Amino acid sequence: MLARLSKTLLVLIACALALNACSRMDLAYRNLDRLVPWSLDDYLAMNREQKTLLDERLKQHLAWHCKTQLPGYLEWLDRIRDMVAQDQVTDQALQQRTVEAREAIGRVAAAITPSAIELLRGMNDQQVSEMREAFAEDIAERQKKYVDTPLPKQIERRAERMEKRLSSWFGQLSPAQRQRVQAWSQALGEQNREWIANRQHWQQQLLLAMAQRNDPSFDGRMATLLQHKESLWTPAYRAAFHNTEQQARSLLIDLVQSSTPPQRDYLLQRLAKVRSQFSQLKCLNG
Fold first, then answer.
1. Among candidate residues 129, 102, 116, 100, the one with its CA nearest the CA of residue 35
2. Rounded distance, CA 71 to CA 77, Å?
3. pTM score, two decimals?
């Protein structure tokens, strides 16, 4: 229950700030399990000792996360709700909420880095080879799903995904709001291509580090990979990311400003419901 709700909150943070617009915050939170990485099973076959270590560390990190981080997230949610209720969803306010979310990401990344280093240093050559193959499959699948289609189709599908996400927060969108989502998707252009290329670049850097996992420099390289991923971004993705963030803020501002009273109430009720779910977690009240 705790793990499921914790990941739900992390996704909520991404949705509330940037509406899942492939921002740094969104990517980090949606893939929190791969930051440690918790989902090593997706990439390689772990032995019993490794699985035991992973399970123990996961429990420890989730307990730490709930006790020390979730209270701050509740306050953060309150600020989001106040922004909506007081009609203060501005570019400046959203940038501040984004800074706060990045700081939260940084604390999580710093906390899990030692566990990641220990787990990854213990991988054998066969497991690293399996990881390399799984990474290649990951990129191929994403390339096929998000890039290997004509750009107009990419834009259409991206808008459809966003409309679906937005509907869960605002209720049914009006024709004008749907048109605004379409304009947002159009403005992102080839973002899918740059996102996947940057993901592949990060994976390659991780594999290079894994090839020298017994070297004294391994700890520092992993800290950079997990805590300072933006320092490894490709130039093209860096430019695409800044555009993505700007477009996401603009979209959110326009949607809130154009929202009807029922839509505004729906959004506030959803935020209140999620806050209530997390405030009742046993780890917060034990």
1. 116
2. 10
3. 0.83
